[in-house]
């Protein structure tokens, strides 16, 4: 990028002022970068919410905004007019007061943040919307990603609407629904013989290749922007609770980015005086078959030992989670924990959530609700504290997990047949 | 019901004051009835929006309400506190400004009302929410329906959340996703060897049987309440357009109820002074393999000749549509039309919508967008008029229609393999 382009970019990123290294704190101008040149640490967005000429961010300002993540535009690395550009306008999903599930588990105040209402039915629409805007600003013409499935669909849908090309990469062997829901939007969908971690490494290589020129990989070279999208989960939860933070929150862990950004969002709300400063505990959820962060937490380690995933929760099957160490920090700092459940417990939890609240989660949601249950049973959650659990994706994308749910009986259209079938 | 219960009911139904026969105009008190005892015509809800003691329904009142159909509670047969009772809080879904699709079709101002954002990803959550509230008021303990798939899921999810039993009836041979998405909520799901019309007849029989006592069939004995839920599509479209009616609207036809209630909603908004009184044209969409209303429209008939459905658009596969004659009336009165498309055109339209707007519709949405295209091509739609098309359900529920959408290539994780695969 030229200097003039960089100056334009500064205007385009709203309250964001720089990229900052999460490890050494070094700052560089906003650009399509994701690794610190000083120490190779990950870069994230730094903000100045009190720049002269920008309106103060108040509850009223937010409440007067659109029913999408763009109500929080003043807290995101996007221009003020972002909602006017073609995108999927995700967010502002339901916060479900889960009285039935709470009763079964013994939690007095439980809410489910149900992100299945997003345009492609997972929380990934949030992060992609921010990355798309950055891609436009940087002049990228192809939107790309490495994905465990949901992200591929979100990227292809967003690119279709924005008029960008899409070329996305997934591990071979994903659920059919996730494949179709990416391919149907007309982009290129390339399966890689290998795990997600191998797909991810391949994408990093591709960025350095001539073929990757002009490509915005939402979760690689646009990752600092992309990751900020998860903050909107924190903002929405707080606003929907009546501008207060939950006391406990249970969050699925894939790369760990969602968890770290929800924590960042809560801290921003406190710093801006939008919510009362009160303690909250952050809990992470993994599937037993891909639980490197949970294992490190339990062992008291600061580093995460990569694993080769083997679980039905494919959208959480990241064996080498980039934000694993930060997740450990946050869980320990807030007094939370990281826990894991077996695939059988995942399936049980999907059914439990559906039966009690009418919410049909994908396997990732089963992991999170399963861990919620385990945390209650092992006394790690306070049953009287206000608790939120994230449902990040949709049951329609992982039907195989509950494929034995079928018709009770097949009968002829007669009362006699009906009575006979019911015994 | 006792007289006391009926009096309570009157309080519970907000602005609704009676059931009124659509044919002869006879009125009876609000109750779980659906057929006129005078003439056997269908009953619908009659309102008095100007009852003493009720607040005037203004734009401001509505805009200050929740981001769900309950913002329109003052226009629905529900109590004022309906949002506080356990339900799925559907509605307030996206109105997508479809610039890309409009450009391809030659329509200058096109919007998609995308109802896939509802909790079970179809517009059926709207109608079920109203029926659920009526079921509670009438003391029903089992929620039931005859369904082509989407309704079964919506009923089972709503019943789960409300703590009612569910027992729903579907024709055998539905899509796997629709079966699982009903069964997972834990109710009884009974498949009937026969068409939807046979399922529907069976349910009418069951209401008269001892086994059906205490059962609320949302689209049979609760139908007058249920049907009103579709009015919320009209309200939302008008509000999201900035409190004005579209000039043209294209709506899928199954029973025809959605179309007739959108028309009713528009007329109410005009009568209440919430929008300017300007003409609008209503267009209906059917699949060629189940097009009795389209056939009657084209032949100039007032009655609809039942057919045996044969189409991939199973959620529209009602061969004997109850509201068919009313649909014909509305299409003719407003200067609209009813049109149908082949299954191949349905698949093309699903892909067109996905590729241009990032919206993945089920086959019913394919029918509606396919008809939209046909209406433009045949000159029946004004390309300069503000046009809305309804997307009533989700592509994830009818994956088979686009099952050939798959990965572009499967490769080893290397740049060499990538370049080789792309040629």
Brief rundown of the structure:
In chain A, 38% of the residues lie in helices and 16% in strands. Chain A is of the alpha/beta class and 423 residues long.
Task: Walk me through this protein's architecture.
The structure is a homodimer of 423-residue chains. Chain A is an alpha/beta fold. Chain A folds into two domains: 3-65 and 124-226, Rossmann fold; 94-121 and 230-402, Rossmann fold, CATH 3.40.50.1100. Helix content of chain A is 38%, strand content 16%. The first copy, chain A, has 15 helices and 14 strands. Chain A has helices at 3-12, 59-63, 99-105, 124-138, 150-162, 176-183, 196-208, 223-228, 231-240, 257-271, 292-299, 324-334, 343-357, 363-377, 415-422; strands at 16-21, 27-28, 43-47, 94-97, 109-114, 142-146, 165-171, 188-192, 215-217, 248-252, 281-287, 337-341, 386-391, 409-411. In chain A, strands 4-5-13-10-11-12 form a six-stranded mixed sheet, sandwiched between helices. In chain A, strands 8-7-6-9 form a four-stranded parallel sheet. In chain A, helix 6 links the parallel strand 7 (165-171) and strand 8. In chain A, helix 9 crosses helix 10 (257-271) and helix 11 (292-299) packs across helix 12 (324-334). Chain A is globular and about 75 Å long. Chain A starts with a helix and ends with a helix. The model of chain A is unreliable at 3-7 (pLDDT under 50). Chains A and B meet through helix 5, helix 6, strand 8, helix 7 and helix 13 of A and helix 5, helix 6, strand 8, helix 7 and helix 13 of B. Strand 14 of chain A pairs parallel with strand 8 (188-192) of chain B.
